[in-house]
Amino acid sequence: MIAFGGNALLRAGEKGTYEQQLANVERTCESLSRLLKEGYDIVIGHGNGPQVGNALLRHEAGTQLFSLESMPMDFCGAETQGSIAYMIESGMERVLHRAGIKRGVVSLVTRVEVSPDDPMFQHPSKPVGPYYTKEVALSRPGQWKEDAAGRGWRKVVASPKPLKINNIDLVERLAREGNIVITVGGGGIPVVADGDGHRGVEAVIDKDLASALAAVNMHADEFYILTDVPKVYINFRKDGEQALDSMTVEQAKAHLADGQFAEGSMAPKVRAGIMFVEQTGGKCVITEAGSLGNPSCGTEIIP
Questions:
Q1: Host domain of residue 83
Q2: Residue 24 included in any domain
Q3: Is 244 domain-assigned?
Q4: For residue 46, which of 9, 21, 94, 96 has the smallest C-alpha distance?
Q5: Is 242 exposed, middle or buried (0-12, 13-18, 19+ CB in 10 A)?
Q6: What does the pLDDT look like over 246-264, one tens digit per residue?
Q7: How far is CA 57 from CA 72, 128, 154, 229, in A?
Q8: Structurally, how many domains does the chain consist of?
Q9: Helices 267-280 and 207-217: crossing angle, nearest 10°?
Q10: Which residue of 10, 77, 115, 139 has the fewest C-beta atoms within 10 A of its own C-beta?
Q11: Which residues contact 179 (CB under 8 A, 6 or more apart)?
């Protein structure tokens, strides 16, 4: 199981054009080809933070300019799952062709069940969408919070714990047949059980945690979390900065308790790695895509 970080799609300083995102995706897929050549079966999860924010903004602009009906967040999540998966399929297809590797590439728009009683619904904290002035933000429905860097106010929604991934048995079967499967995009579309089916809710599921759950449910041997640094650091960008080659689950928990890993950055990745290792005994590696396949690749979390 491989969780694509945001830099697999959009890098600092870029506008996020289709061409830029497609080029970034293809570079990341090129790094994955090293694992494919070693015979790995691969499932890919990915983030969608900037993309779903842009989708919400486009819907809002359509409402204001053309009186079009604005769609809810779960709908926008489905939109971006499909569009990002399309880019990953396109990039992977070219990489496979150049490498002479014959693999199918399959994308699934994935719903992920959460509990309607999850306490995070009472304490929304995940920022989504564009920045607004305080006056504009507080005139709109929902809950809003000022950005710590002073860039404005953003809507905040819940980030509930993922409980069940729709069609994960099918994902596992397709992967074990040698197909490359793209699933749980953006952490999955959050839904709650509702009568005979499910209904979407306004929330964002952490994509690393959803990918970890997918890895556990598929009985994956290894879980890779791709980010923009080659290893996990303690005292990051401070005196005594140290890159970690490995850490046990207990050491990782101690570093989290000490505040070594920033929330919204490395902390959720480490928690996802801990979850996978504790429940499977397998290996989790946190690294950048360009390091994949190297003998000392990334930071390994071990039992």
A1: 1-113+162-205
A2: yes
A3: no
A4: 9
A5: exposed
A6: 999 999 999 999 999 988 7
A7: 12, 10, 12, 30
A8: 1
A9: 10
A10: 139
A11: 103, 104, 105, 106
**Residue 156, amino acid:** V
Question: The dihedral of CA 264, 270, 276, 279: what is its sign?
Answer: negative
Helices 249-257 and 267-280, packing angle to 10 deg: 150
Token digits of residue 43: 């499932």
Q: If we measure between CA atoms, which residue out of 26, 3, 7, 28 comes closest to residue 290?
A: 28
Task: Give the end-to-end CA distance of the chain in Å, rounded to a whole number.
Answer: 18
3: its two tokens: 């969780």
**Three-state SS annotation for 100-156:** CCCCCEEECCCEEECCCCCHHHHCCCEEEEEEECHHHHHCCCCEEEECCCCCCEEEE
Question: Tokens representing 101?
Answer: 């590797």
Cβ–Cβ < 8 Å for 248, 259: no
Count the Cβ atoms, other than its own, within 10 Å of residue 279: 13
Lowest-pLDDT choice from 115-124, 151-160, 238-247: 151-160
Q: Do 296 and 245 touch, CB atoms closer than 8 A?
A: yes
Note whether residue 197 is domain-resident.
yes
Q: Is 80 exceeded by the pLDDT of residue 7?
A: no
Q: Which of 139, 128, 123, 104 is nearest to 49 (CA)?
A: 128
Contact 210, 225 (CB under 8 A): no
Asked if 112 and 187 touch (Cβ cutoff 8 Å), the reply is yes
Residue 98's domain is classified under what CATH number? 3.40.1160.10
- For the annotated catalytic residues, the residue numbers are 6-7, 126, 207, 269
Q: Does any domain span residue 9?
A: yes
